[in-house]
């Protein structure tokens, strides 16, 4: 399966308007934003866990990166309420579930060789960043030199520009933003190749935006099994 796999092209998607696609686990559905592969895939998705649902225990050979959007995501290591961000590097494993249901943003098989950083940021955690034009508050969630992940609070009606020298991916967590003629609300997702700067206007209630500044695919990205 191949979905939005041309990384040279800018992509904008209103994921909230997309259909849910069932996963192999009962009660776990997906909105597929980017995918290369079948059930084992290099992928970016919104995943919904129904109340009481779970996914079988599994090893993350290619690593996973998660932002909890609503509800509480759970595994044997703890509970992760909305706003939690974590990275499970290659070789980690867990048994995910959601007693009360949840929705998460997930990136799979996009780690690079030697990336073993395992982190958990609870809601509100991360290094506070200096304010800049249109962005009164922001937190640094992760930065290892090869990629930088932040979550920003955009002011109401603010024009915001994010420079892009190596690739950008973003997700609207709350509020609305307008990019050109396209208005994106919660679960609005975009991916921009290097050189395409993110220039957008926040809605009248402002917006919360998750942003990854990194090559859209690392030159040494982990090789998927045949």
How many discrete structural domains?
A: 2
Q: What is the CATH domain class of the largest domain?
A: Mainly Beta
Beginning-to-end CA distance, first to last residue: 14 Å
Helix content: under 10%
The SSE order reads: EEEEEEEEEEEEEEEEEEEEEE
Mean pLDDT reading: 95
Q: Number of DSSP strands?
A: 22
Instruction: Spell out the CATH superfamily of the largest domain.
Output: Jelly Rolls
The second-level CATH architecture of the largest domain is: Sandwich
Number of H- or I-type helical stretches: 0
Global shape: globular
Sheet bearing the most strands, described?
9 strands, antiparallel
Radius of gyration: 17 Å
Give your account of this protein's structure.
A hairpin with a 4-residue loop joins strand 16 (137-143) and strand 17. Strands 1, 3, 4, 5, 8, 9, 10, 13 and 14 form a nine-stranded antiparallel β-sheet that branches. Strands 2, 15, 16, 17, 18, 19, 20, 21 and 22 form a nine-stranded antiparallel β-sheet that branches. With 226 residues, this protein is mainly beta. It has strands at residues 2-3, 11-14, 21-22, 28-37, 41-49, 53-54, 58-60, 64-75, 78-81, 85-88, 92-94, 97-98, 102-108, 119-121, 127-128, 137-143, 148-154, 159-162, 168-179, 182-184, 188-192, 198-213. The protein has two domains: 19-121, Jelly Rolls, CATH 2.60.120; 127-213, Jelly Rolls (Sandwich), CATH 2.60.120.
